[in-house]
Design brief:
single chain, 263 residues, Vcp-like ATPase, Chain A, domain 2, Rossmann fold, 2 domains, four-stranded antiparallel sheet, 28% strand, globular, binds S-adenosylmethionine
Length: 263
């Protein structure tokens, strides 16, 4: 299946995700499936009106409100069109994980837990066209949801989904990175060490400082080096000439990141 992010042509095709832009506050990411109808505050649009149109074109809802058809980014799709039933990784943390774990085209990456598959999809997108993400999830209902999300994006051929408790062990060897987003990563650090190639990176996301201490200590104990504990704060700005300032509200906390290298 082709990736929903590859712009195969300039026309919207059946199954594509599209961003319907009304204004900077009101835009929606929908999947163009024949027969589907989308209801917004601005009115109703049917998928049949979108399919075959060129990106950049405008169209009107049934009450005459105009919107533009925009090609969405990976971030737009994952965070606006995917279904979620678990806590999910935030874009800022996913971006840092990709860069610091050295994940790119051709990488072999182990991930646990899969959760809603937000990070799985982002990792799969990064490892294309020759890499693989092996993702472990203990709860089958979350694994099925993640499969559906990742398949909708069209990157499922780069993912091996495993309904398994990762504390029982990691099957893959000589992988480039192990990414853990689960409650007790210290239980998995030893398996991660055995699974990684020399120079491979362990990346853990944990929401509390108590978990941070435990995972750092276990990484050091398991023989990892260059163990770093980090937190990434992202602040948005309200930009208006002469009165530019930070937004009043922000996401004050997502979690901490631990990166460690197998020597
Ligand atoms: C916070 S969610 C992961 C969210 C995911 N990173 C995302 O962005 O959608 C944590 C997941 O880890 C799973 N999990 C917890 N312990 C696990 C284990 N030992 N093996 C496999 N999965 C586990 C949970 O069932 C849950 O779905």
């Amino acid at each position: 299946m082709r990736s929903r992010l590859r712009c195969a042509g300039l026309l919207v095709q059946e199954g594509d995700f599209v961003l319907l832009y009304f204004n900077d506050r009101r835009w929606y990411v929908v999947r163009a499936r024949r027969g589907a109808r989308y209801s917004f505050n601005e009115g109703v649009i049917s998928a049949d009106e979108i399919i075959g149109r060129a990106y950049g074109e405008s169209l009107k809802t049934h009450i005459g409100v105009e919107c533009r058809i925009v090609k969405p980014t990976l971030c737009d799709i994952v965070y606006n069109a995917f279904k979620r039933r678990t806590q999910v990784i935030y874009p800022k943390d996913a971006a840092l994980i990709i860069l610091k774990a050295g994940i790119g085209p051709g990488s072999r990456v182990v991930e646990a837990g899969t959760g809603s598959g937000f990070l799985t999809a982002i990792l799969a997108y990064a490892v294309r066209p020759t890499g693989t993400v092996y993702t472990y999830e203990v709860r089958s209902e979350f694994l099925e949801l993640a499969k559906a999300n990742v398949a909708a994006l069209g990157v499922d051929s780069f993912v091996v989904f495993k309904n398994k408790d990762v504390r029982e062990g990691i099957d893959e060897r000589e992988v480039d990175a192990v990414v853990l987003d689960l409650a007790d990563p210290w239980e998995v650090v030893g398996h991660a060490h055995a699974s990684l190639r020399s120079g491979g990176v362990l990346a853990c996301f944990v929401p509390t400082v108590n978990q941070l201490e435990k995972v750092v200590e276990s990484a050091r104990g398991a023989g990892f080096v260059m163990v770093e504990a980090e937190e990434l704060l992202l602040r948005k700005y309200k930009v208006s000439r002469g009165e530019t300032r930070p937004e009043m509200r922000m996401v004050g906390h997502t979690g901490y990141l631990v990166f460690a290298r197998k020597p």
